[in-house]
Structure formats: C-alpha cells, structure tokens
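assembly run, all chains below
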Amino acid sequence: MKKLVCAKSFLGVTTALLLGASAFSPTCVLADDTPQAGGDLVMVRSAPIQSFMPTLVAENGSIWALEEVFDTLLLPTEDGKGVQPGLATEWKQSDDGLEWTFKLRSDVKFSDGTPMTSKDVKFSLDQASNEANPFGFINAAIAEVKTPDAETVVVRTKAPFAPLPSVMAIFSNSIVPDNYGGKSAEEFAKAPVGTGPFKLAERTIGVGARLVRNTEYWQKGKPYLDSISINEVADGNTRANQLMGGQAQINEFPAYSSTQALRAAGGDVTLGVFPSSRVDFLAFNTTKAPFDDAHVRRAIASLIDRQALIKVILFGNGEPAGAYMSPSSWSHNADIKGLPFDLDAAKKELAQSNVPDGFSATISVESGDSDQATMAQIILAQAAKIGIKLAIQVLDPAALDEARQAANFDMAFTYNTTDIVDPDEIIRFAGVYDGGSHVQYSFYNNKEIAEKAEQAATLGEQDARKKLYDEIQALWDKDQPMVPLYYSPEIYSFSTNVHGFHPYVTGNYNLSNVWLSH
Amino acid sequence: MLVPVVLGTATLTFLLMHLSPGDPARTYLGEHATPEAIAALRQQWGLDQPLLIQYLHFLRDLVTGELGQSMFFHEPIADLLATRLPPTLLLMLMSALLSLIIAVPLAAWSAVRNSGLSDTLVRTFTAVFQGTPIFFVATVFIVLFGIRLKIFPVAGYGNTPWEHVVSLFLPSLALALGIVPVLMRSLRTALIDALNSEYVSFARAKGLLHRTVWLHYALRNASISGLSVLSIQVSYLAGGTLVVENVFAIPGMGTFLMKGILNRDFPIVQASALVFALLVILVYLLTDVAYKLLDPRVRLK
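ok done. output:
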C-alpha cells in the first residue's frame, strides 16, 4: 500500500492557509503518485441539481455539477487570483481597451464528436448575455461577439473592461454547440452536449446525476474516472454515514463539529480543508432606524466576539474577518482588521448615536440553521450589557429571503462567495447599491464607493485597481453596513483512496484530475 | 368522501402556500436577481394575478387532471410524481407488513401469558419504542446494520427491484416500530377478550383443535379491532415517511414535498398534498374491503 501524505489538509485553517496561493499545493499526494485510471466515484451533497443548462442556473449545486460537462474559454486558477487557458489558449486586449481577442484550441470536439469552432462560442456567449438569465448581468459589459475566423473570437465591450477574462471563466459562459446542435433549449437541457471531461449519462430530478467519461475530451489521458455520481442527500448525518459505510467517496460540507474526529480518525476517511472565498456577515437594514446611524452599527460590531463565533460555529476552522473582500482575492485590504470586541468602545459608539440609552430590535435567523441561532444568542447576550434588547425571530428560508429583500427586517446573517476570480463581482455585490442585491439587502448606498468601483473596472493596471479597491474597503469599513464575521474554508470529507481532489477557490471540483487507488 | 377530501386538501394547500411569505420567483432566480427579472418571472408564472383568479385556474387544472410544471425544475409534475410515488408506496406497504409480522405474534404471546413476566417484558419493549422518535431509531439502525455490520445499505434506494426492497428494509422497520406498540396493545386486549369469551370456551368444549380455535375464533375476531388501528396508523405513516425518507435519503414523496415547500414550488406542494390525501383515502377504502372479508355482519348489511 502506498503511503498517503496529506500535507495541508491536516493542518487545518492556519493563517498561512488563508494567505493564498503559495500555501496550496495539491492537498493529498501519494508517495508514488501515478494516477490510476478507472473507477466510479460517488459524491454526496445536500445541494440539488436544478438543471444542466448553463444559462439557467444560479445555485452552486447546479453550477459545480455542470462545470464537469462544459468548458469555458478560460478557467480560474486554483488559488482564485487569476485565469488560465481553457478552450482559448491566448487572449489579449486591444490598444483602445475595447476589444478582447481569444485564440481557440484547435483540437477540441464536443462529446458528440462535432468539432468546436468560434461559431459555437458566439452562440454560447450571446445566449448567456440575455438579461433575463440569473447570471445575465455578468455579461452586461459585452457589446458584441465577433468571429473573424473559425479559431478566433473577438469580444467587444461597451467600455474598457479589465475583468473580461475572468467573466469568460464563469459557468454561465460555458460553451455549448451552435444553436444547441439543432435541439430546442429544453431538449438540450435534458441531454446536454459539452466539451468537458464528463458527459451526462442519466439524471433523476431530486436524486442526482451520473456522469460518464467523455471519450472525446481534449486533454489526453483525462479524466481518470469512468464515472461520477453526484447524489443529493439532504441530511448531513446520512451523508457522513454513507461515507463511513463506503457508499460514497466524497461528502460535501461535513459538519464542522465532526472535523476534529475526522482529523484524528486516520482510518478510511479523511478531511480536506480548502481555501474558499466565503465571507460571512451580519447585515443591518440601513434604511431603518436606528440602523441608519453608523454609530449604532459600529456599536453592534464592537459587541461581536469573532473568536468566540469561530470557536463555537466553525470549531476553529476559520479566521476573524476584517475587510469585506475575502483574503482569497488580490483586492483584499489586509490593513482592515474590523472593529475589535470591546464593550467600552461599543458603549462610546452608542453614546454618540441617536439612541444613547439603547433600543430594542430583532435578529432574523433561518429556521433549521442552528449556526445562525447560536450566533444570534451570543450577540444578544453581549448587546444586553449595553442596553440593547435583542429578540430572535425565526423564519423559514424563503420567508427570510423575502423579508430581507423587502427591507422588512432589522438584522440578518448573510454571506457571499465569488463566482469569478476578478474582485469586480463581489466589490459591487457587497459594496455597491446597484451591484445586484443592494449590498446583500443592507440597502447601503454610498455614491463614492459606486464611482470608485466603476472606475476600477475600466483600469487595466492591477496596481491601480488595487489602490481603488483598498479605498473602497476602508470607506465601507468605517460605515459597517454589515459586520464581517469570519472567513471560512470549504470542507470536504472523503475516502483515503480518493486522490487529486482539490476544489478551486471558486468552487470548481475539477474532477478530471481525480483518481481512485484500487 | 373522495370529493370533499380532495377539494378540501387542495384548497387548504393552495391557500397555505400562497398566503405564507416567500416567493418562488425569488428563490428560483437567486440573490443576484434584479426586481425586473423577478417581476417578469412572476408574470410568466401567473403569480401577478389576483389570488382568486389563480385559485380558479388552479381548480380548473385540478378538474382536468392538469398538474402543471415544477417551477424549480422546469419539469412536468406528472413525470416527477411517476418517479417519486413508487418508493413511498413500497415503503408504506413494507412498513405495514412488517408491523403485522412483529405485532401479531407479540400480541398473541402476550395475551396467552396475560400478566406474566413475558407479557410485562413485551409491554415494556413496546412502550420503549412508542416513546422513541423515529429519526433516532433510524440513525441507530444505520450505524448498527449499515456501518458496523454492513448487512444493509446505509441509505439510498438502489437500482433494481431487489435492491429497492433491501434498501427499504431498515426504513420500513423503523417506521413499523413506531406502529407496533399501538397495534400490539389493541390486538392483545382484543385477543384477551376473545380468549375469555363464551364462543371460544364453546369451541374448545366442542373439541376443536387448539390451532383452529386460535385462528378461526380468537384471532379472526380480534383482528377486526386491530385492522381499524392499523388503518389509522398507516395513514399516519404518510407523515412518518417525511422523516424516514430524509434520514435514509429515499427519493420518495416525503423528500419531494419537503423540497417543494423550501423552494416554494407551489405545483409540487399542491400535487404532493393531493397524493397524500388520496393515499389516506385509499387505505380507508382497503380497510373497508378487509372488514367485509373478516366480518360477516358487515357483509350482511
């Protein structure tokens, strides 16, 4: 038996782990790490697969599954800080900044054997740009897609747009055959054809999907696995049991409470801790008194003992959050540490506010989410010490979403993860009022941030953009429309015979690299 | 009975889903969705219409047997139900059978040894299971038989008919153990009554075989009360499937309904509630038929 060495995954989340790229080489390497071909992998997750239609989905469960079937022009890098070649091998921006030219790989075929050309790319991008799609907004900067020849694609943008390469690496811009290969969109969604490492063999809605090796895949010798089954299992205990019982090889998001046991186990099951872009927040309804007062928001931020939350909720697998951008992004402003846990500071902030003697408010939590309930309890206890009376309101997920979106709440927990490697998406999503969700439904509206974000997107130089992003995060930090709570990793538990499993910061599984030792 | 129950269930489900907060269009489009995109989708799904109009459309579809399309999955409900119904039906059937297989011998044994040590043991055993939540029993079964002993699959439904039966054994047993206590106790009481009755004494006096007395006189008469308890308990099973299907990851009606509620997928919830209502009616119908077979008095009427 070959010796398995899991260097990083056993260390847990140390500061180094969150510092980024250099700290992450492949998670587990065999002393003799020659991949073995063959085998069927079963992954269990709670997330459903809504559809295999790249333009129609918005949930990670669907996104991460369809990424195994489709390719994009470019791919995120493993550390989530840049892009690497995908179906396009070269790309460059024109001198006026308005056009991006992509050279396509010449030997790529779809899983049905037809060659992939620029016509397919144009059709795919045009479909994806429809504003009615859940992710249509991501292509808003695109004016036109042109195809000078079969292996060249030119994307013209409305204004110079630096994040375009990363937009070409998002799932919604997956490359599908021109005109869906003559099928209707509905038919295509049921029998998708892509250039990815796997193709869909069967799918039962609400149960899962089985993908088999795409024999036409352009990366020779890959994928290693014969098939992957992605099964939907809602109950976390059931998933853990299936992994232990050998019914599954990868369990997505095991409970944090099980991480210690998994690390210690040393048996057939191991724990993988992978850096992610996830940032958790406590959001305020900044349109509602007294939360329209930054002093009140800062007072509450000072009441939150982030270390305690990390200990209780993440069992130590996380870092306290400061800036609203994740450390996984190059835009992260490391100088911002967030407001420290300090009751005196909280009292001082409250004294300067419109409600110096305290007030009553509610924290809305999602039913069935014991983490949110626990965090709310911890915050409630501290708030009581400076005269803020908090009550906890439990709402079911859909009702909570509606309450938040209708600005009918005081405080609620929320988080974000990025879909693209460029910071543009999250800088806007969590900082700009018109960035998609009105700052994650805190309804924070800061014109200066909006202008800087707009300006940064047009700049080509990363250093110049970084400077603007640093300023944005500092402005945001002063106003605290949300309290950044912690940066957390993505955790997976898996059998020790699974090798090469290393999801990217953006979540992509990259199962083409995974192999099973028999 | 059919029409009022179906109409009542359908109307209640419709109102509960439409009046509770939460919007399928928001759930579907996710956090990034613009208000315009949500409004457009609401219009496409007819959710912008007055509630009364939506209700009338719903009734029209109900009468014509049109179940509609899932909002979340873009698939016809009828197709989804076709894959979801069989596991639940099999699960309920196996639970009912298992509960009989366990409860009848226990009740007989306990009745014969009325107030003896074994009777006390049996009654204690059933009381313990009556007080234990199904999800706990289910989890213990998974750990014991699935992970440690590896006799049964940990979860799932398998691919072949035989795998289905094997996969559903533990969940059925967990559900059955929830029914056994009540069923066993009512059977036991009825059996004790029957055994003490004059017709049993008479049958014995006539010199009939012990087995004949038991099967044709005591058990047959006692089974009538057992049957009504079983039918009530089996309709209660419809609710139990929600828990058990979740713990054992069985792609049945219970998990289907739960997902539908969380996604605010109105057509799924309405159709599932209807199916459960019809299942309960079906069980009552079957019970009536069984009464006729067992009790000559019902046949005479």
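Confidence is low (pLDDT under 50) at residues 1-31 of chain A.

The two ends of chain A are 10 Å apart (CA to CA).

not gonna interpret more than that til we talk
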